[in-house]
Backbone:
C-alpha cells in the first residue's frame, strides 16, 4: 500500500475581481468547499473534530488580490494532476479559480512558509513623479501601536512606472508588513508633501478598489494638487 | 437596470466584512433577460438573512418561471446604512447591484415581531414610499409574508399585499398575475383588486378598519370597501411539499452567516399542540418527506454546495416517523468525509437523546431541552406533553452517553403561573443537575453544567393563548429574581432576556392596524434593528407611543374572554377559533390534548378546512413505545 503522504497536491489559484475583497478566512472556507464540490478524495484529520487536511499559503489582506496563491491538499489516493485540476476548475467561481495542480514531495515546506518573498503590484490613481517610502510604519495590533522599520521587510526598491508601483516584501518569522499598509503610508507621505496640502486626509486613500491592475504605465502624471489614491493591489508572485 | 456597483465599490474599502455586499457567491442565479423582476428582501443583515428558508424557496420558485427573475437584498449593517444615506446610495440587490426601487415587485419576509422597524428602514433606504397609499404607478408593488403575516395589521399600511401561508406556489402565481396585468397596462389599483381575489392574498387597503365596538358587533375588524371582496383570507398550503425534493439549489455564501450549512427541511408542521406556540398552529397539517427523499436530497446537496454540515430542519425533527432510518443511512453515507449532521429541536425523552447520539460523533458539546415550565401542573396547562420522568430519562441517557453540559429553556409569565411554578423551575434544574452528576463517573462530576434560560411569555396571534395578556416587564423581573434566589447550585446558571423587547413583541403580536403608526413613529425616532440587543431603543418606542396616542400596555397586557374578536380574526390558519377557545378552556382545567400524529384527531379544523390530511412517511409510534425499541447503532 502506498504511503498517503505521497499524495500531497499543491494547487495554485487566483483571487481577483470583487473576490479580492474576501478575507483570508473566507478564502480558506471557500476553497475547502470547492474541494468538496470537486469530489476529490481528500484526507480527513483524526480525532475530536475531524477536518479536511488542507493548508493555505501566506494570507492576503482584505482588498488585495493574488495571481499565484497556493494551497496544499492531502489526498488519500492518486488522482492525476490534470484530473484534479479539471475537477477543481469545474467547482471554482471564476474569480477564485484554480490554475494549476502538481504533486509535491512529503518533505517540502508547507505552503504558508515555502514562499517568504512576495512581489506586489499596485495601480495608483495617477502617475506620481516619485513615491516617497517612509522609514517606519506605525501599525496597530491588538490595540497596541507598533513601529515597523520598512527596511526590515522591503527587499530592493519601490519601483514606480507611470501609475504602477511594484515592490517585494519578505515575511519574517516574527511578523510581516502588510502591502496595503506600506502603500497607504507611501501615498499619505506623498499627499502630505504635496503643495497646498498642509493637511492631507489619510482616509481619502482608504478605498482600495478590487479591480485587477489595468495597464497603468501610460497613466497621466498627477496634477500638482491632485490627491493620490490606491486603485488596487495584487500579489503577482511568491517565491522562496 | 442601474448598476450601482461602481458607487458601492468606492465605499467598500473601509466597510466591515465587505464580502456580504459583493455577490458572486456559488449558486447565484442571473437572469438578465427576464422582463419581470422580483427582489426578495430579508429585513436584516446578510449574515442573519442569507440562510433564511423563505428567501431561498421564493427566489428559486420565481427563478423557475419563464421570463421572471428573482434577486436578493438585505439591510446593510447599521453604520453602513448611514454611510449609504450620506452618499445618496439606495438599497441595492445582491445579484445585479440594482436599486431595489427599480424592481417590478419587492417581497419582504416578516420573520419575527422585532423586524417591523427594519421593514421601514428597508423601504426608506430603497427610496420607496413607506405607505402603500402614496406609492406611484412606477413604484414597485411591495409584498409581505412570513410568520408575522398571520397578524398582518401592524404592518398593513406599509404593504400593497400580504401573502398568508406557504409561498411556494402563491408567490410565483401572484407575480405572474402582476406581470400580465402590467403588460396589459393595468393601473396599480386594478392589479391590487385582482390580487385580492387570489387565494391566500390580503390587500389591506381594500378593507376599512373598524373600531372596537363595531368590530365586536360585526365579528370582524375589517370592512370590505366594495362588494365581492373575501371577508376571510385562508392561508395557502403547498400541497406538494412531501413529494417535492428536499434538495433545491442554494447559495453558498463567502462570509460566515448564521445557519451556514446545508439545510434540508425534512418535515413541515407540528401537531404537539403546545398552547403558546404559533408555529405549532400555523404550519398544520404535518407533512413528512420520505427517508429516501431526505437521504437523496442531503447527498445531492452536499455534493453541489461543498458544505461540511447538514441540518435536518423542521419544528420537531426527531418526531419524523423515519428519523432513525434517515440518520443511520446518512451516517453510513457520510463516513470518513468529515461531515457533521445536526438535528435541531431535541425531543425531550431518551429517544431524542439516542437520535442526538447517532449524529454527535465524538464531539459532544451541549444538549438543549425545552421543558418550558417548572411544574407538571403548568406543563399540563400549556399542553407541553412532557413529564419529569421524560426529562430525567433524557438526562440520564445524555450524560451517560458523554454529554457534560445541558441547557434548559423555560418561559415565565405563562397563563395561570404562580410563584410556586417559578420555584418549580429552580427545583427542576437542581434535581436535573443532581441527576446528571449521578449519571457520570465521580472524577467527571466537576465538568457537569446545567444552565437555565428563561424568556418572557409573548402571547401570539392564532394560538389558544392569544387572549391572555403578558405580565409587565417589572413583574417579569420580580419573577426572575425569585428564580435566581431559588437556585442553590453554583453549577446551575440562570440567563434571561430583557423583558422590554418581549413587551414590544407582544404589542406587535397582538396589535391591530393602529399599531402601524406606532411602528412608524418609533422608526422616525431612530428605532431599527430592534432584535439586536445593542440597538434596541426602548425610549424611542415609549416616546412614539405618547406621540401617536397608543396604549401599548393595554395591547400587550389585557386579558380577554375567548369570545372577544381579535384583530387577526379575518386571517385563517385553518385551525378554527372554536378549537383555540376549547384549548384555552382545557388549559384552565389542567387538561392536555394529545398529538394527533401519534393518536386520535383533536379536531383542530386544519385538515377539513384545507382539504388535506396529515401526510406521514410511515406511521408514527408513540414515544413510550419507541423508547422500548432497540436504538439503532452504527
Residues:
Amino acid at each position: 500500500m502506498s504511503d498517503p503522504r505521497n499524495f500531497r497536491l499543491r494547487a495554485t489559484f487566483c483571487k481577483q475581481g470583487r473576490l479580492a475583497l474576501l478575507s483570508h478566512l473566507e478564502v480558506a472556507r471557500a476553497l475547502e468547499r470547492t474541494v468538496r464540490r470537486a469530489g476529490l478524495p481528500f484526507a480527513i484529520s483524526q480525532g475530536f473534530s475531524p477536518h479536511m487536511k488542507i493548508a493555505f499559503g501566506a494570507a492576503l489582506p482584505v482588498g488585495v488580490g493574488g495571481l499565484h496563491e497556493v494551497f496544499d491538499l492531502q489526498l488519500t489516493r492518486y488522482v492525476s494532476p490534470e484530473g484534479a485540476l479539471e475537477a477543481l476548475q469545474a467547482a471554482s467561481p471564476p474569480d477564485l479559480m484554480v490554475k494549476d495542480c502538481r504533486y509535491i514531495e512529503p518533505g517540502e515546506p508547507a505552503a504558508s512558509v515555502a514562499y517568504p518573498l512576495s512581489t506586489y503590484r499596485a495601480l495608483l490613481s495617477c502617475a506620481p513623479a516619485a513615491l516617497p517610502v517612509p522609514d517606519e510604519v506605525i501599525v496597530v495590533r491588538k490595540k497596541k501601536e507598533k513601529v515597523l522599520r520598512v527596511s526590515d521587510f522591503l527587499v530592493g526598491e519601490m519601483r514606480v512606472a507611470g501609475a504602477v508601483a511594484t515592490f517585494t516584501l519578505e515575511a519574517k518569522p516574527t511578523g510581516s508588513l502588510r502591502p496595503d499598509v506600506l502603500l497607504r503610508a507611501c501615498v499619505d507621505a506623498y499627499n502630505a508633501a504635496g503643495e497646498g496640502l498642509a493637511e492631507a486626509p489619510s482616509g481619502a486613500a482608504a478605498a482600495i478598489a478590487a479591480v485587477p491592475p489595468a495597464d497603468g504605465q501610460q497613466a497621466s502624471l498627477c496634477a500638482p494638487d491632485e490627491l493620490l489614491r490606491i486603485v488596487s493591489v495584487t500579489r503577482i508572485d511568491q517565491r522562496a | 437596470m442601474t448598476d450601482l456597483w461602481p458607487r458601492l465599490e468606492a465605499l467598500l474599502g473601509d466597510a466591515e466584512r465587505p464580502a456580504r455586499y459583493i455577490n458572486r457567491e456559488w449558486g447565484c442565479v442571473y437572469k438578465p433577460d427576464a422582463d419581470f423582476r422580483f427582489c426578495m428582501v430579508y429585513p436584516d443583515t446578510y449574515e442573519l438573512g442569507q440562510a433564511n428558508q423563505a428567501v431561498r424557496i421564493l427566489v428559486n420558485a420565481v427563478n423557475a418561471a419563464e421570463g421572471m427573475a428573482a434577486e436578493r437584498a438585505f439591510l446593510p449593517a447599521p453604520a453602513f446604512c448611514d454611510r449609504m444615506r450620506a452618499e445618496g446610495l439606495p438599497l441595492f440587490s445582491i445579484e445585479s447591484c440594482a436599486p431595489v426601487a427599480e424592481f417590478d415587485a419587492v417581497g419582504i419576509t416578516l420573520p419575527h415581531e422585532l423586524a417591523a422597524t427594519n421593514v421601514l428602514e428597508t423601504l426608506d433606504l430603497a427610496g420607496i414610499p413607506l405607505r402603500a397609499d402614496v406609492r406611484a404607478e412606477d413604484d414597485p408593488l411591495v409584498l409581505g409574508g412570513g410568520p408575522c403575516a398571520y397578524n398582518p395589521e401592524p404592518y398593513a399600511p406599509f404593504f400593497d399585499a400580504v401573502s398568508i401561508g406557504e409561498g411556494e406556489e402563491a408567490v410565483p402565481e401572484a407575480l405572474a398575475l402582476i406581470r400580465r396585468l402590467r403588460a396589459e397596462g393595468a393601473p396599480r389599483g386594478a392589479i391590487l383588486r385582482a390580487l385580492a381575489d387570489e387565494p391566500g392574498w390580503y390587500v389591506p387597503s381594500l378593507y376599512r378598519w373598524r373600531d372596537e365596538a363595531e368590530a365586536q358587533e360585526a365579528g370582524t375588524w375589517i370592512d370590505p370597501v366594495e362588494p365581492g371582496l373575501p371577508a376571510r383570507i385562508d392561508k395557502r398550503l403547498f400541497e406538494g411539499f412531501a413529494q417535492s425534493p428536499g434538495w433545491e439549489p442554494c447559495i453558498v455564501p463567502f462570509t460566515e452567516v448564521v445557519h451556514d450549512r446545508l439545510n434540508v427541511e425534512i418535515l413541515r408542521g407540528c401537531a404537539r399542540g403546545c398552547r403558546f406556540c404559533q408555529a405549532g398552529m400555523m404550519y398544520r397539517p404535518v407533512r413528512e418527506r420520505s427517508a429516501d427523499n431526505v437521504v437523496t436530497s442531503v447527498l445531492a446537496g452536499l455534493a453541489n454546495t461543498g458544505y461540511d454540515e447538514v441540518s435536518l430542519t423542521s419544528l420537531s425533527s426527531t418526531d419524523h416517523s423515519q428519523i432513525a432510518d434517515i440518520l443511520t443511512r446518512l451516517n453510513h453515507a457520510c463516513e470518513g468525509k468529515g461531515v457533521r449532521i445536526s438535528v435541531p429541536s431535541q425531543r425531550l425523552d431518551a429517544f431524542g437523546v439516542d437520535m442526538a447520539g447517532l449524529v454527535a460523533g465524538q464531539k459532544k458539546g451541549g444538549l438543549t431541552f425545552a421543558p418550558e415550565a417548572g411544574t407538571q401542573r403548568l406543563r399540563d396547562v400549556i399542553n407541553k406533553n412532557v413529564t419529569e420522568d421524560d426529562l430525567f430519562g433524557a438526562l440520564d441517557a445524555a450524560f451517560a452517553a458523554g454529554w457534560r453540559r445541558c441547557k434548559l429553556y423555560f418561559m415565565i409569565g405563562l397563563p395561570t403561573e404562580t410563584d410556586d411554578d417559578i420555584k418549580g423551575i429552580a427545583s427542576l434544574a437542581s434535581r436535573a443537575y443532581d441527576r446528571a452528576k449521578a449519571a457520570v463517573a465521580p472524577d467527571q462530576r466537576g465538568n457537569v453544567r446545567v444552565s437555565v434560560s428563561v424568556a418572557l411569555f409573548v402571547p401570539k396571534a392564532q394560538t389558544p393563548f392569544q387572549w391572555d395578556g403578558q405580565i409587565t416587564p417589572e413583574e417579569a423581573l420580580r419573577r426572575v429574581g425569585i428564580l435566581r434566589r431559588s437556585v442553590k447550585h453554583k453549577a446551575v446558571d440562570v440567563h434571561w432576556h430583557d423583558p422590554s423587547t418581549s413587551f414590544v413583541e407582544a404589542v406587535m403580536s397582538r396589535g391591530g392596524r393602529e399599531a402601524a403608526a406606532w411602528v412608524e413613529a418609533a422608526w422616525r425616532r431612530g428605532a431599527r434593528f430592534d432584535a439586536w440587543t445593542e440597538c434596541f431603543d426602548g425610549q424611542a418606542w415609549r416616546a412614539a407611543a405618547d406621540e401617536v396616542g397608543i396604549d401599548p400596555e393595554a395591547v400587550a397586557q389585557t386579558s380577554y374572554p375567548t369570545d372577544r374578536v381579535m384583530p387577526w380574526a379575518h386571517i385563517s390558519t385553518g385551525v378554527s377559533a372554536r378549537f383555540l377557545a376549547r384549548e384555552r378552556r382545557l388549559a384552565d382545567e389542567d387538561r392536555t390534548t394529545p398529538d394527533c400524529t401519534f393518536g386520535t384527531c383533536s379536531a383542530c379544523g386544519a385538515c377539513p378546512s384545507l382539504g388535506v390530511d396529515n401526510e406521514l412517511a410511515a406511521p408514527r409510534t408513540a414515544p413510550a413505545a419507541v423508547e422500548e425499541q432497540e436504538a439503532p447503532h452504527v
